[in-house]
Amino acid sequence: MQNEQNARLLIKLDDIEPLIWRRVEVPLAMSLKGLHDVIQAVMLFEDFHLFEFEAGDRFYDVRDTAEDFGHKTYAAKNVRIRTLIDRGITTFAYIYDFGDNWRHTLIVEAVEDADPVYEYPRFLEGENRAPPEDVGGTFGFADFLEAMSKPRHPQNRELVRWYGSRFDTNDISVDLINQRIVQLARRRTLGKAGFAKSQNKQH
């Protein structure tokens, strides 16, 4: 059987300095809905809001829609990463939460054979903690960081209570990211095993 292939992706959160980024390996056979789950996992988002991919001249979200956002969208679950690459698309966008409008740039850095030692998707590395949910977009996040960095700031105590702890921009919580990614990889492996079993029963 031919080796499964992966795309190595660089995920960058736009319009924030210092750059918040993650590097992952994802199967080419994964859908854009699956990629959404991966981005949620590595950025530590909670999947509270809508999302959309923008690739070439097409838009993909949770379902096929008419002109909900002024343009036609296609179901993200029906489109594979391989399809985009086959169309020559190696840079595309992911937008999460249309209120806070977290826009990410995704770059396909390489396409490689999967290593049978690992389960995929796989988190490789990253820097700087992503914003918490519902912080108010890039300007709200800047205000949040300012207040969090100054114990005497009038909003410091209130924001620490709202967030649940101090906010360390350098701590991306690698253990938690890996835990989330392992859950996705395990679910995918079990799904593939179940599919193979059902195929065998038909023969």
Mean pLDDT: 92
User: What coarse outline follows from CA principal-axis ratios?
Assistant: globular
Strand order of the largest sheet: 5-4-3-6-7-1-2-8
Number of domains: 1
Helical content (DSSP H or I, runs of 4+): 25-40%
Order of helices and strands: EEHEEEHEEEHHH
Strand proportion, as a percent range, falls in 25-35%
The CATH first-level class comes to Alpha Beta
CATH superfamily: MM3350-like
Radius of gyration: 19 Å
Counting DSSP H or I runs of 4 or more residues, the number of helices is 5
CATH topology: Structural Genomics Hypothetical 15.5 Kd Protein In mrcA-pckA Intergenic Region, Chain A
Structural class, judged by helices and strands?
Answer: alpha+beta
Describe the protein's architecture and organization.
It holds the Pfam family PRiA4_ORF3. Residues 7-174 form the Plasmid pRiA4b Orf3-like domain. The protein is 33% helix and 26% strand. An eight-stranded mixed sheet has the order 5-4-3-6-7-1-2-8. By secondary structure, it is an alpha+beta fold. It has one domain: Structural Genomics Hypothetical 15.5 Kd Protein In mrcA-pckA Intergenic Region, Chain A (Roll). The mean pLDDT is 92. It has five helices and eight strands. It has helices at 32-43, 81-86, 137-149, 156-163, 174-202; strands at residues 5-13, 20-27, 51-55, 58-61, 73-75, 91-96, 102-113, 122-127. Helix 3 packs across helix 4.
